[in-house]
Structures are given as structure tokens and as C-alpha cells.
Design a protein that fits this description.
It is a single chain. This protein has 67 residues and is mainly β. The chain has no helices and five strands. The strands form two sheets. The chain has a three-stranded antiparallel β-sheet with strand order 3-2-5, with no helix packed on it. A two-stranded antiparallel sheet has the order 1-4. Strand 2 and strand 3 form a beta hairpin. It is elongated and about 40 Å long. 1% of the residues are buried.
């Protein structure tokens, strides 16, 4: 199952974005690091279908040299 994550780039000084995923309320884990001006990512590692009970939550964090 592919999941498309999109976001709006509101940062003026980012070096990139970190995309993280949480499965069924567990800890967030790193998925990928995207370059500056990226606004989407396709998670091709999500498992399941519309018939299973997995719940995915995603977060995207901008980063720069200061953190």
C-alpha cells in the first residue's frame, strides 16, 4: 500500500525535511530525509489494506544548520 504525504513549505531557511512515521500509537521512526523545497513523499513501505487495522500517523519536520 502506498501512502502519499504532502505538506506546505513555510520555511524560508530550511536545509531539508525529515519525514517520520508512527504505527498504531507507537514511537515515531525516521522514514527519509528530503531536500529543500520538497513538498511530498510517497511511503511505499506501509503495510496493509483498507481491511486491516493499522493506523499510521506521519510528521514532517524542517531542519537547518541550527537544528
Amino acid at each position: 500500500m502506498d501512502v502519499t504525504i504532502t505538506w506546505q513549505d513555510n520555511s524560508a531557511d530550511e536545509n531539508g525535511f525529515v519525514v517520520e512515521r508512527q504505527l498504531n500509537g507507537g514511537e515515531f521512526t525516521w522514514l527519509t530525509t528530503m531536500f529543500t523545497a520538497a513538498t511530498s513523499y510517497i511511503d511505499t513501505t506501509a503495510e496493509g489494506s483498507i481491511h486491516n487495522e493499522n493506523v499510521y500517523c506521519y510528521r514532517v519536520k524542517a531542519f537547518n544548520e541550527g537544528g
